[in-house]
Amino acid sequence: MKVLTKELMMKAAGCQDLEKCHSITMNDMGLTELKADILSQLVMVNTLDLSMNNLTSFPDIKLKKLQTLDISENELTDIDFIVNFPNLQELHIEGNKGFGPFICLFKWEKEVIALMLCPSILKVNNVPVKEIRRMKDNLINKWIIQMEVKFYVMFTEIYSDRIPKDEVDGVITSFQDGIKKDPLFSNATDREMEVLMKFAEEIVKNHGKSRQGTSVLHSPGSSSNTPRSTRSAGGLNQNCTKSPRSARIAGRIKTNGTDSPSWSPFMSDFVVETKYRMSGSPAVRTSTPLTSGNGTVSSNQKKRKRTDSPDSEQSISNKRERLKSPIKPIFTSLREKLPSLPDYDPVFFIRCHSTMNDPCDQETKVWKCAMEPDVNNPGQTTNMLVTCGGQTVCLIDCKTGKVMKRYKDLNKNECFYTLAWTTLSVEVSDKEENTNILAVAGQTGEVKLLHPSQFVMYATLDGHRNYVSGLTFHPEQPTLLFSGSRDGKVIMWDIGVPNLKDYSVEYRKLQVLQTPGTDALNLSINSASQTLLAACEDSCYGWKLNNLKKVSREPDFLFILPDVQGNMMKGKKKKQDLQTVDGLVDLNNGFVATKCVFDGIITVWNVKDNLPKKGSKSQVKVIVKPTAYLQYVNSEVDYINLGAVDGTLCVGDDKGSLYLYNISKLPDQSNTSMEPSLILDWPEITANTDSAKMNGSLHSENIVINSACLSYDSQILACGTDNNMVCIWKRTSSINS
């Protein structure tokens, strides 16, 4: 045990008057204790190095001139003492073995807490303050989610509607006591616990404000005893404004205008329940749409812009011209019907991504949806649906229409565009169990990993410089994640396996793949050919994945899809000359389906059969030879995603309709246009409220279905829309004839 003495410090400082010392280095001296009366004499010191000792605490003294402090490689248990250094700019605290499990719960807590305690800091552990502030937002976000889940478990059943005013204080005290006793937070320092107690108080108070009645939507003829969500909104005083659907990205960036986070764990859900068909609707929705000359449905809907930034507002002449394929299908006379599919009934239409809980918010876009994998039965799904849009990710029970969990990001600029599921094997109580992990990403360019059991956001993958539109996991290596961004890169990550006790995890950036001059809208891995495909703004690229250690940075393949526009003007570049591949989904047996804006068809093709037999060191242009063409709408609206399960493909359009295709049996190299097996029209829906604003927000001439998905057995069909709706349909026993 070695205690600091005045003589020892004067020797290290090289001066006899400690009050005049400006810089002192006492690293690796075996110190175990610091004396307050000695350190308090350092009134002029601006640099103090006490690294590589055995210190367990720091005296409660003020050093107003101190600017740089190095206390790394000690055994400190907290850093609360830095509040006494008002001019501290640089702090080194890494390698302190005494930090408890709470402070080590996430990757950047020490840096974040240091910034919270001492705002003057410019750098912690050589990390700039700008980066630390971003870490701080992430850390607070994680704390809030943990506490919201605990609040839900403790109080939601007791206070399903609201907390009476005379009981709020008691609930706050009870909730705070529960936080203090929770093993996850029990090792927090006094300073950290102060922050948690403030969070707890805000959660309780905002829960009390947010339960003010119900707002449920229904269609004519719906059953009154159908399960409904009883969650409702508070502060529904915002004007319901209608924005033009052509302002595609205006909704992407301006989706959430609130400057402060919502503390309520489960905000309002506005549900459309449509147990039966609307009055007067046909028993079978199979009417063939009006077609244009090329055999596709015509639409005048405008292209939706992805961003308001100057680089995305480039004119058509500045974008890459579509490479022409010699393959030109003939649609006018050759048209076949796909096998029939059972009909579907609309059951729940839910508005759960609203900004500020506004029930008439029809601007927030629900960009992506996917069914949760069944951890015990590979290839199957549960009844849980995940959706993303705005700052929010929702987990919805398709049986009841209730939003079971919700994650809301604290970054007001975040708008989630994409998501992907994976199933990992984790260690739980000394045995291996499977658990699902959800990856989400969007406007900020950060990929966030969530654990669905509590909807905890436990890691942030930061590697992109612009928004992320595409995510996909490797089907055979579940920790490998690919993310595609506007920055022209596809990053391959190893997300690691989280420790579910404290949600610690180690992840790595493995490779950075280039998408030359464009961005990846959708990603898909074709297992049969071991190829990563990227559907991009003006092309479709592919990379070989048979050797993940040697994945090339540049694409191995440029896929040239069939040219279905037969009326192009020679010598002039038209909108149709630009190949925006906005739809891509992997099918069974090596097949994929792709969709291009303006084309009016969905192309089904076998990746392996189209790849060159001989390898090449340079990029290969592949003229895609389709297996089948599926008839679709000829629309200018972009970013409409495809969905598929065994034998069935689904996609929405810009009129609120859903198209389903039975692709269990397809012709070999057919040049015909296959008509949809089933078309589901947008149902008539109303709100069971007298609010004209609420009812007015449910209807629009052009309802864009951004994304659609199916359960593994096709019993459930779900989609997300441009007017802030999550729509759930269930299959009936009747077969569409």
SSE blueprint:
Blueprint: E1 2-3, H1 6-13, E2 23-25, E3 31-33, H2 36-39, E4 47-49, E5 68-70, E6 90-92, H3 109-117, E7 123-124, E8 127-128, H4 129-155, H5 168-181, H6 190-209, E9 216-218, H7 248-253, E10 270-273, E11 297-298, E12 335-337, E13 342-351, E14 368-373, E15 381-389, E16 392-397, E17 402-408, E18 416-428, E19 431-442, E20 446-451, E21 456-462, E22 468-473, E23 480-485, E24 489-494, E25 508-514, E26 520-526, E27 531-536, E28 540-544, E29 557-560, E30 581-586, E31 591-596, E32 601-606, H8 607-610, E33 620-623, E34 628-631, E35 633-634, E36 642-645, E37 648-652, E38 658-662, E39 673-675, E40 678-680, E41 686-687, H9 692-696, E42 705-710, E43 716-721, E44 726-735
Parallel strand pairs: 1-3, 2-4, 4-5, 5-6, 6-7, 9-10, 11-35, 12-39, 29-33, 34-39
Antiparallel strand pairs: 7-8, 9-41, 10-13, 13-44, 14-15, 15-16, 16-17, 18-19, 19-20, 20-21, 22-23, 23-24, 24-25, 26-27, 27-28, 28-29, 30-31, 31-32, 32-34, 36-37, 37-38, 38-40, 42-43, 43-44
What does the model show?
- With 737 residues, the chain is α+β, with helices and mostly antiparallel strands.
- Residues 100-108, 210-270, 272-320 and 566-576 have low confidence and may be disordered.
- It has three domains: 2-99, Ribonuclease Inhibitor (Leucine-rich repeat, LRR (right-handed beta-alpha superhelix), Alpha-Beta Horseshoe); 132-209, no CATH class; 297-564 and 577-694 and 701-735, YVTN repeat-like/Quinoprotein amine dehydrogenase (Methylamine Dehydrogenase, Chain H, 7 Propeller).
- The termini are far apart.
- Strands 41-9-10-13-44-43-42 form a seven-stranded mixed sheet, with no helix packed on it. A six-stranded mixed sheet has the order 2-4-5-6-7-8.
- A hairpin with a 4-residue loop joins strand 31 and strand 32 (601-606).
- Helices cover 13% and strands 31% of the residues.
- Helix 3 packs across helix 4 (129-155) and helix 5 runs antiparallel to helix 6 (190-209).
- One of its GO terms (cellular component) is kinetochore.
- One of its GO terms (molecular function) is chromatin binding.
- Belongs to the LRWD1 family.
- InterPro entries: Leu-rich_rpt, Leu-rich_rpt_4, LRR_dom_sf, LRWD1, WD40/YVTN_repeat-like_dom_sf, WD40_repeat_CS, WD40_repeat_dom_sf, WD40_rpt.
